[in-house]
Design goal:
Blueprint (H helix, E strand, L loop, with lengths): L4 E4 L9 H14 L8 H5 L5 H10 L7 H20 L10 H10 L4 E4 L4 H10 L6 E5 L12 H13 L10 E5 L2 H9 L3 E5 L5 H7 L2 E3 L7 H13 L1
Helix pairs in contact: 1-4, 3-4, 4-6
């Protein structure tokens, strides 16, 4: 059995924008007459969808709001995010990303994005960094009601890849996920996938402890070796 597809997280793996997300989430709180708390973004938001992040931040302050109210906040935050990106000449992608994508393309493996980010944000970034043609499927935060560590996003990506490539006959255990947060790693593993943890957002030792493979940087990932080891593990 061989590796058939590679699924990427987005924020913290494709684009280095988590400081911007924290800034915008804190701005939302201030506009709601609430004070941001130290460490709260990392605890409640990192690796999770904006909807779940905002809902939990409000709930932590005793705010009970409707889903429509949360949707409006998510839309407002997304619009601010896209506006901020329009003012950045060169978007901050991670070192080694382009080479890794080249290796995956050379192996003729389809790629997908599985993220809690808003779909319009993902599409905007991929277009700006000229990576859009390489991702056959995007599962975004507005495609599903749950958030990582729930496995639904990864399972939906498998379904969509099979729809796009009917002869692929893809199963979750034939996928490799690339993640940067504990929530993301758990999500992929609960879906039945092997995971590379890249230490972009959390220390290497945390990625090493929780994922199947761990690297400090994407440029350190020996993709051919991962494919060999992956095949051996699946076959075992």
């Amino acid at each position: 059995m061989t590796l058939k597809a590679v699924l990427f997280d987005f924020n913290g793996v494709i684009i280095n924008d988590e400081p911007l997300h924290q800034k915008l989430i804190e701005q939302i709180l201030l506009e709601e007459n609430l004070r941001p708390r130290v460490g709260e973004f990392r605890q409640l938001c990192l690796g999770r969808s904006d909807r779940v992040c905002i809902r939990d931040l409000l709930a932590a302050r005793g705010r009970v709001v409707t889903e429509e109210y949360i949707t409006n906040l998510v839309v407002r935050k997304s619009q601010a995010y896209q506006q901020q990106l329009s003012e950045i000449e060169k978007l901050p992608t991670y070192p080694g990303l382009a080479d890794l994508i080249f290796q995956i393309r050379s192996a003729q493996l389809p790629m997908a994005i599985v993220s809690g980010a808003v779909g319009a944000e993902i599409e905007l970034v991929l277009a700006r960094v000229e990576l859009a043609p390489y991702f056959s499927v995007i599962v975004a935060g507005d495609d599903i009601l749950t958030s990582k560590p729930d496995p639904m996003g990864y399972l939906l990506a498998v379904d969509r890849l099979n729809q796009k490539f009917p002869d692929l006959n893809l199963r979750p255990q034939e996928c490799l996920a690339i993640e940067d947060t504990p929530a993301g790693i758990q999500s992929a593993q609960r879906a039945g996938m092997q995971v590379v943890g890249v230490a972009n957002s959390y220390p290497y030792h945390m990625m090493h402890r929780q994922s199947n493979w761990a690297v400090d940087y994407l440029s350190e990932l020996e993709f051919d070796r991962v494919r060999e080891v992956y095949a051996q593990r699946v076959a075992a």
